[in-house]
Amino acid sequence: MTEAQITAAVDELVALVAKGKPMDAFEKFYHNDIEKTDLDGITHQGKVLIEKLGHEQLANIRQVRDFSALATVIKSNRSFIVWSIDLDTMQGPLNVVEVTIQDWQDGQIIRERYFA
User: Fold this and answer.
1) How far apart are the C-alpha atoms of 64 and 93, rounded to whole Å?
2) Bridge partners of 74?
3) How far apart are the C-alpha atoms of 25 and 32, rounded to whole Å?
4) Which CATH architecture does the domain made up of 3-115 adopt?
5) What is the rounded distance in angstroms from the CA atom of residue 106 to the CA atom of residue 1?
6) Please, which pLDDT band fits residue 100 given cuts at 50, 70 and 90?
7) What's the alpha-carbon Rg for the chain, to the nearest Å?
8) Tens digits of per-residue pLDDT, 8-48?
């Protein structure tokens, strides 16, 4: 993929999340062999497992005040998204600015890491 193609894909991914459709973005843009490292440093592999965990996380949300992209950067086959997140979960509030680093392969995200 070119940087322009990744930019368009990231823009669409962000738009889907903004519409409350993060799992639609996941289905479209994530590779079957995705490797994802969460803020807690735990790494998970495989689209089926990560999709299951994503649905569990979404079911845990009680209220969303903000879940927006503040900025994006695309360089070569890597994208960076800065997210502003302010929501309540069953475990309590989550208020964080995080950076997602995504590596793209074959038009999809093959590796994703979160940092806050």
Assistant:
1) 10
2) 79
3) 14
4) Roll (3.10)
5) 7
6) very high
7) 14
8) 999 999 999 999 999 999 999 999 999 999 999 999 999 99
pLDDT of residue 98: 97
The Cα–Cα gap between 107 and 94 comes to 31
Tell me how far the alpha carbon of residue 48 is from its chain's centroid.
15
Q: Strands, E, within 76-107: which ranges?
A: 78-89, 92-105
∠ CA 73-67-71 to the nearest 5 degrees? 15
Structure tokens at 2: 């070119």
pLDDT reported for residue 78: 98
pLDDT at 109: 98
The pTM (predicted TM-score) of the whole model is: 0.93
* Long-range contacts, stretch 60-65, CB < 8 angstroms, 24+ apart: 60/89, 60/90, 60/91, 61/87, 61/88, 61/89, 62/87, 62/88, 62/89, 62/90, 63/87, 63/88
Query: CB neighbours (10 Å) of residue 48?
Result: 9
| H/E run at residue 6 | helix 3-18
